[in-house]
Amino acid sequence: MIFLIKQKFDVTGMTCSACSAHVERTVSNLEGVQTVSVNLLQNSMSVEYDEQALDNNSIIKAVQEAGYNAFVSSGKTPATAITGGAAAAGAIPASNPAEQEIRQMKKRLFVSILFSVPLLYVAMGHMLGLPLHSLLLGPENALSFAFTQFLLVLPIAIVNNKYFLVGFRSLFKRAPNMDSLIAIGSAAALVYGVFAIYRIGYGLGHMDLSLAEHYAKDLYFESAGIILTLITLGKYLEARAKGKTSEAIKRLINLAPQTALVIRDNIESEIPVEEVRVGDILIVKPGGTIPVDGIIVEGNSSVDESALTGESMPVDKKTGDRVTGASINIAGTFKFEALKVGDDTTLAQIIRLVEEAASSKAPISKLADRISSYFVPTVIVIALLATTIWLLRGYPFEFAFSIGIAVLVISCPCALGLATPTAIMVGTGRGAEKGILIKSAEALEIAHQIQTVVLDKTGTITEGKPRVTDLIIDSGVADLEDKELMRLAASLEKSSEHPLAKAIVEEAERLELQLYPVEDFLAIPGRGIEAILNNKKYLAGNLNLMTENKIPIGNLAAKANSLAEEGKTPLFFADQDKILGIIAVADVVKATSKAALDSFAKMGIEAIMLTGDNKKTAEAIRRQLNIDRTIAELMPQDKEREIRNIQESGRKVAMIGDGINDAPALTRADIGIAIGAGTDIAIESADIVLMRSDLLDATAAIQLSKAVVRNIKQNLFWALFYNTLGIPLAAGIFYPLLGWKLSPMFAAAAMSLSSVCVVSNALRLKMFKTENIYQGGMTMQKTMTIEGMSCLHCSGRVERALNALEGVQAVVDLEKKTARITLEREISDELLKNAVTDAGYEVVELR
Predict the structure, then answer these.
(1) What angle do CA 588, 592, 595 make, to 5 degrees?
(2) pLDDT tens string 285-336
């Protein structure tokens, strides 16, 4: 029996993709290892292995034998990083490897520049007519001239000894890397310079000034010093840029507070947040940050969850509602019971998902790994061949020697190694900021290939909760007002357990209506209910109930049919003599579903709706949203089968669902997207988790995938193009025809620039913005807060007023007093406000 465990290690000494590929290959060859993934960007390695066949020490030993070092990751877990006590909020732990690397690079760069400037001045200043001391001029002073340069280059070589230690060690282990190229090139220049000093000494000792002068002109100390300095400058800029790629994770970690107010033994005290236990009662005051996940037991408030979900609107919370750690309490004090603490909080899970996605490998990165494994040995061979060929053609040794050094130095395998992980880390971080949690690099890459998106109806396209949508009073009871009919209906439905009844009662509660006492309540299965109210019999239910009680419905029949065609359920209300009216209830379409489905269509993605609902309702929603195809009356297992059928036709499929009853379908799809999910089942089943219940985030996830893959391809193209052009140029291929010969110093500068360009290009993803597409054009989303709406007629008037404007799609939420507006073209805020004001309502805010 195999007992698999997953362990993360920190790996030191890796400098390029050849290093990471060698470490990965070494560990994967160990018996018992199932999977291994090495991340050059984070200097980390994740290994899944059989603990009966292998242990951590054996893995560390294998890495050390490969020429690197490794140790079990001592970095804080997401939860402990969030709650880490000693460090102040926002502080980065002193042990942060990235920060340590930047500090060390900065010191090395300072020393290198300090000695490189005078070295370059002494070596080349006189060629530019700059003054130089007489002790360093002329063939008779050649030895002091050479030895001064040697003394200046020594500190540069010593402070950058890492290149030599790691480079030659890797070379001797038969796994050469980028450091090997730098070490060979700069060491060759240094050795040749020392040889030149001896030759100068020999010339001066034998009164051969021409020999001394000849070698004084070909020292190469300045080449070695400037190469090491420019490489260190490039590495420093690269380290700083790499540090910026993980800023999203840092911001997430810094969201949670360091302390919490807890009540224990009736005493309120402030404790470190890591000491909070499940079951503790905590207090959150206005402006405070909620420390852990829990449920409100006393009080109510408005909570800003934008940091976790990306939703800008505050969410009202009352007793019984759940709250999430890292959310901000806007107004009101409340008490809540801690349900999830430490590693179990939603924030900790988000950080863990982002970190795992950033450290995972996309399929496209395997191409770079394969190239890198052969790259460095090939470059060394090319350098030797180039040097030999130029010597055989009769060129001076110094000429051929500089060609060989230039080839070694200009080659840049690190650009290949950084091309994929930098884009993945920035992309997943940017997604997390927008409430889009991508669980792996593979999911991020596959998402851009999606051809068909399959959507669950309830909770994905619709709100997943029945709401009152229409109220129609029969013309025969003109004296009956809307609120009175709603009051009668809610009084009757109060005792019913039916979901549609609950929607009516909730609407009455929202309108703050006082309900009538009801007697002799009777539920009639498949029909509705009847009860005595104010000594009079009332009926509520479907058309069959009215027919059986001989209640004529008159012209309401046509309106009921029209409502049913729209996917709504008409409920008839009557007293013992006559029909009173209809109240329609429906699981309404979310405000952004239409824009999201139009966005899928614009991207050329087929949309299919799968639902367990009846065909009539499904067809009504299909028509309303222009969905390509719908399949109704399905069980959860049927959805999985339908997805399999689509895949067998050769299409890449994404399934978007709520992550609970859709778990089998989410798992079957090429990409499973759990929408509006914070549930454990959703996180386990899906490849991408959307924190908001907004279908537009699903389109954003696919757009982000396209942007990341495009960025990776740009990076790989640049890295391959640079090396394809740079190596022949350094080898002198263009010299016979065009006279182009690359100095080793310029080669070092170009190599450093290559890596910085790749990382900088990946950082552009931080500016990624979603494109909300509606009917073929770019759109803008706005939210309007409106005062004065008190019933469905009010919200209907506002909706009609806004939709009457050309290029406007508006959905009004009566409960939240808001209108979600989608603009197809530029329309002034003043025009939108006037439309609502003219309808008789007040615009509080538009953003």
Answers:
(1) 120
(2) 888 889 999 999 998 888 877 666 555 556 778 888 888 888 888 877 899 9
Q: Are 610 and 642 in contact (CB under 8 A)?
A: yes
pTM listed for this prediction? 0.64
CA distance 221 to 147: 10
Amino acid at 339: L
CA distance linking residue 413 with residue 241, whole number of Å? 18
| Residues in contact with 773: Cβ distance below 8 Å, sequence separation at least 6, in sequence order | 595, 598, 599, 602, 603, 699, 779
Compute the mean pLDDT over every residue in the chain, rounded to the nearest whole number. 81
Residue of 304, 456, 598, 670 with catalytic role: 456
Least Cα distance to 789 among 822, 816, 810 occurs for 816
Strands (E), 549-685: 569-575, 579-586, 606-610, 629-631, 653-657, 671-674
Q: Report the distance separating Cα 47 and Cα 30, nearest Å.
A: 11
Tokens of 750: 């170009």
Asked if 613 and 466 touch (Cβ cutoff 8 Å), the reply is no
Query: What is the CA angle 55-60-64, rounded to 5?
Result: 150
User: How many CB atoms are located within 10 Å of the residue 410 CB?
Assistant: 28
Using an 8 Å Cβ cutoff, are 516 and 532 in contact?
Answer: no
Distance CA 242, CA 424 (A): 12
- Residues 640/664, Cβ–Cβ less than 8 Å: yes
* E-state strands within 636-743: 653-657, 671-674, 688-690
Q: Give CA–CA dist 35/691, Å, rounded.
A: 29
* Residues 274 and 454: beta-carbon distance below 8 Å: no
Strands 569-575 and 579-586: antiparallel
Angle of helix 413-433 relative to helix 346-359, nearest 10 degrees, comes to 160
How many C-beta atoms lie closer than 10 Å to residue 382's C-beta?
Answer: 18
Closest to 674 (Cα-Cα) out of 660, 692, 695, 656: 656
Q: Residue 78's pLDDT is what? A: 38
User: What's the pLDDT tens digit per position in 475-493?
Assistant: 888 788 888 899 999 999 8
Phi, psi (degrees; rounded to nearest 5) at 737: -90, -45
The 10s digit of each residue's pLDDT in 58-79 is 999 998 888 788 888 764 433 3
Residue the block writes with tokens 């006082």: 514
Cα angle at 461 between 460 and 463, to 5 degrees? 75
To the query of whether residue 456 is one of the catalytic residues in this protein, the response is yes
pLDDT at 11 > cutoff 90 = no
Which tokens sit at 150? 């040697």
CA 541, chain centre distance (Å): 48
| Pairwise CA distance, residues 669 & 686, whole Å | 9
Residue 88 pLDDT greater than 60, yes or no = no
Closest CA to 44 of 361, 416, 412, 433: 361
Distance, C-alpha 819 to centroid of its chain? 29
Q: pLDDT tens digit string along 119-158?
A: 888 887 776 778 888 788 888 888 898 999 999 999 999 9
Identity of residue 229: T
Q: What type of residue is 189?
A: A
Check: CB of residue 774 under 8 Å from CB of residue 808: no
* CA gap 217, 124 in Å, rounded: 10
* SS3 of 294-363: EEEEECCEEEECHHHHCCCCCEEECCCCEECCCCEEEECCEEEEEEECHHHCHHHHHHHHHHHHHHCCCC
